[in-house]
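Entry:
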Amino acid sequence: MLLLALGCAGDEVDPFAGPVPSQCPSTPMERSLVVTRMRFVKATMPGVVDGFDLDGRVSRNDDAASCRRVDFTSPDGTAGVDNQLSLLVPVLETQTAGALDEAVQAAINSGQLLLSMSIEGLDDRRDDPCVQLVFRQLRGMPFVGSDQRLDPGQTFETARDQPVSRVTGRMRNGVIEAGPFPLALPVAVLDARFVLNLHNARIRLRWRPDDTFDGMVGGGIPADELIATVQTLGIPQELRSLVARLVNGITDLDPDADGNCRRFSSALSFEGRGAFVNP
């Protein structure tokens, strides 16, 4: 009987083993959040910035596969971080008189930039081997609290004319990690409204016990797409030309047959609070 019991114990399957399923079993439990804060990730010191290792390499200035763009190190010492967008942040801040984060926050609080993430297929809110994240752009006029953040528990409508992105992942100790997947990420800064199409995106999302959220999302942005978007903005031609040169100077992903990289790496951090979303 003892041997039989040991044999049965050895046959138990680790639910976290193997690849993440493409779909999770449907469950009645789910949770949605609305993004209450979003920031472009900045370098904390030269060569040190948070983000993701998007290409599985630690690239140096002699690495042709990343077009000789040097990778960063994260604040916790992890090497191989791909986040070339952080090099553009100082230029963006110049155009908002150093108030880039405040400009994005104003767009969120006014309802011009509303993004939700729904966690579906939940079996447990701390450890779950398969959950699905659904990203939706929202419509509505939000209520803002005294802390200048969107109040929790509000109800929003899905912007049905905007793309919806989905990805399955795993949650360990309240932290969901997922990717790679394609993500259409809306951005609003001052009068500029556009979508960043992140390729091979990755996300890390922490669900705190007080029902607040924080995390980071990153991926590769096509340089040609962003340059074309910048040309439509109401900014001086000199600045549009400068941005085009800078973007072409930071491409580090997706090399073509001639070895020219067509995308640049990026990362944005976010915070969120519980909300109700009508799909």
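The first strand starts at residue 29 and ends at 40.
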